[in-house]
From TrEMBL:
This is ABC transporter domain-containing protein. It comes from Trapa incisa. Transmembrane segments: none annotated. GO terms for biological process: transmembrane transport. Residues 36-261 form the ABC transporter domain. The lineage of its organism: Eukaryota, Viridiplantae, Streptophyta, Embryophyta, Tracheophyta.
Length: 266
């Protein structure tokens, strides 16, 4: 489907072999069932002057199947770049990446997600050439809309939806295609508070209903950590900490308070 970035075909990314993948899982403590792994990923760009500008340095992470993880860090620390590498939209300069398939990258702006005139048609869009009967397509669409709490919206024109509802329709489209990994880039940036919580709850609900779906959510909002099974904190192109969301929240709060103390005392 083109309203989400659906990646079912192989990319040029170097993938971890199952043996190496399991090894990495043990190293990072995620068990043998990681759905998303990166090892020592580096990414740099060439400047206009012909120099090399590092964006990501030695980023490693492992996210177990069936969990919702959040990726946090200050503006410009490399969160979106890392997510795009996991999605296969960017190729790392070096390092290894493994992400279960099918995987879907959901864009930040809700208006970039949805292309069809009605909710039902939009969710069904990616099943167009799948060979399913129309009854099967309808059943998959309904199930996916139920997972995001929008089963009553099947016939609704897309332009009548709020931003958060559009995000949920986009996520339903991914689920209808049996997506295993959702890569969600700051979905709540454009949304008001009730829409934000609606989208997070929809993602959480999808994961609760299917142990087979894993989500990585880029965010700036500390309060969203409450819904996470795990978190990754980045600074300056590096993964600084990776694991328990409460500990990551503590780390970020400590950094924020030391920053405001420095500002107040200068
Ligand atoms: N193609 C590029 N050329 C030059 N610099 C780039 C390029 N892509 C990313 N950057 C820089 O790399 C850094 C990381 O960008 P990225 O968008 O990944 O950060 P982010 O953590 O997602 O930021 P934000 O929270 O503000 O969205 C930024 O300083 C950005 O300007």
């Amino acid at each position: 489907m083109n309203h989400l970035c659906n990646m079912t075909s192989p990319t040029s990314l170097p993938l971890l072999s199952p043996v190496r993948s399991n090894l990495l899982s043990r190293v990072n403590g995620s068990g043998d069932n990681a759905a998303i792994e990166a090892r020592k990923v580096n990414f740099s760009v060439t400047t206009r002057q012909g120099g090399t500008l590092p964006i990501l340095t030695n980023c490693s992470l492992a996210i177990p199947s069936g969990q919702l993880w959040m990726l946090l860090g200050p503006n410009g620390c490399g969160k979106s770049t890392l997510l795009k590498i996991l999605a296969g939209l960017l190729t790392p300069t070096n390092g290894k990446v493994f992400v279960k398939r099918p995987k879907n990258y959901v864009f930040q702006n809700p208006d970039h997600q949805v292309v069809m005139p009605t909710v039902g048609a939009d969710v069904a869009f990616g099943l167009g050439n799948s060979g399913f009967s129309s009854k099967e397509v309808r059943s998959k669409v309904l199930k996916a809309l139920e997972a995001v709490g929008m089963s009553d919206y099947m016939q609704r024109p897309i332009q009548t939806l709020s931003g958060g509802q559009k995000q949920r329709v986009a996520i339903a489209g991914a689920l209808a295609e049996a997506c295993k990994v959702l890569l969600l880039d700051e979905l709540t940036t454009f949304l008001d508070e009730s829409d934000q919580i609606g989208v997070i709850k929809a993602v959480k609900n999808c994961l609760d209903k299917s142990e087979d779906v894993t989500a990585l959510w880029v965010t700036h909002r500390l309060e969203e950590l409450e819904y996470a099974d795990g978190a990754i904190y980045m600074e300056d192109g590096r993964v600084i900490k990776h694991g328990d969301p409460i500990r990551i929240m503590g780390l970020i709060r400590a950094k924020q308070s030391s920053y405001s103390n420095r500002i107040n005392s200068s």
